[in-house]
């Protein structure tokens, strides 16, 4: 079974104060390298007086694009911990920028790694997670005599009805997870003894709230 495609539920920011330094992590959903860079530039401009604006992001269905930057912090103490926090949460298509306003007390390499990692993790928790599922629209044409039975069957299987059109026959459009289309189509045809027609339409990205075990 493939891993769920997870991303954050909403864009948000979260602030922590560690030994008088302010760490503000801003996270956002993005679907391209350009969008990630635009968000980083936006946060950096809004916090131009900050000591550092460090970041990391992962873009692509297989995380083909991964970038990170320490933005002046000691090498490996900011960008990599931010990136690893995104990876540990199994997130995709997400950018995180951690803004630091130095408070006068040095944290050391270990302290910086923990600060940037925890700042990112806390922002992720605040944003919440969703699973993205690709669903196809199936257009089912059925007789009026079979319509109530079809609706009952769909309700039993917790299938969402997208729309209905009433003419000489009833056309009921439903949402089905892309990877279940073939199996569910076969179930419908068998259940209704081939007395309906099914046409596959367009697809959509559906978000399901995700709660880690």
End-to-end Cα distance, whole Å, is 17 Å
What is the percentage of strand-forming residues?
Answer: 35-45%
Classification by helices and strands: alpha+beta
Q: Tally of extended strands?
A: 10
Largest sheet: 5 strands, antiparallel
| Mass-distribution shape | rod-shaped
Low-confidence stretches: none
TL;DR?
This protein is of the alpha+beta class. The chain has helices at residues 33-46, 79-88, 108-127, 144-156, 181-191, and strands spanning 6-8, 12-18, 21-29, 52-59, 65-69, 94-101, 129-142, 161-166, 170-177, 197-210.
SSE order and pairing:
Layout: E1 6-8, E2 12-18, E3 21-29, H1 33-46, E4 52-59, E5 65-69, H2 79-88, E6 94-101, H3 108-127, E7 129-142, H4 144-156, E8 161-166, E9 170-177, H5 181-191, E10 197-210
Antiparallel strand pairs: 1-7, 2-3, 3-6, 4-5, 4-6, 7-9, 7-10, 8-9
Describe it.
This protein is α+β, with helices and mostly antiparallel strands and 213 residues long. Helix content is 32%, strand content 38%. The chain is built from 5 helices and 10 strands, in the order βββαββαβαβαββαβ. It has helices spanning 33-46, 79-88, 108-127, 144-156, 181-191, and strands at residues 6-8, 12-18, 21-29, 52-59, 65-69, 94-101, 129-142, 161-166, 170-177, 197-210. Strands 1, 7, 8, 9 and 10 form a 5-stranded antiparallel β-sheet that branches. A 5-stranded antiparallel β-sheet has the order 2-3-6-4-5, with helices on both faces. The longest helix is centred in the middle third of the chain and has 20 residues, at 108-127. The mean pLDDT is 95.
């Amino acid at each position: 079974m493939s891993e769920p495609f997870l991303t954050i539920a909403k864009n948000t920011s979260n602030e922590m104060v560690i030994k008088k330094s302010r760490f503000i992590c801003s996270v956002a959903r993005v679907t391209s390298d350009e969008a990630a860079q635009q968000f980083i530039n936006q946060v950096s401009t809004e916090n131009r007086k900050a000591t550092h604006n460090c970041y990391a992001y992962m873009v692509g269905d297989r995380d083909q694009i991964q970038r990170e930057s320490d933005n002046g912090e000691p090498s490996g103490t900011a960008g990599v911990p931010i990136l690893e926090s995104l990876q540990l949460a199994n997130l995709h298509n997400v950018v995180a920028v951690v803004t630091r306003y130095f408070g006068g007390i040095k944290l050391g390499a270990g302290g910086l790694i923990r600060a940037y990692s925890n700042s990112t993790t806390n922002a992720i928790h605040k944003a919440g997670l969703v699973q993205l599922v690709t669903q196809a629209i199936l257009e089912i044409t059925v007789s009026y005599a079979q319509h109530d039975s079809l609706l009952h069957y769909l309700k039993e299987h917790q299938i969402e009805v997208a729309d209905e059109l009433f003419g000489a026959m009833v056309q009921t459009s439903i949402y089905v997870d892309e990877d279940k289309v073939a199996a569910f189509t076969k179930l419908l045809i068998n259940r209704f003894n081939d007395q309906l027609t099914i046409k596959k339409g367009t697809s959509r990205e559906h978000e399901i709230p995700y709660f880690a075990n």
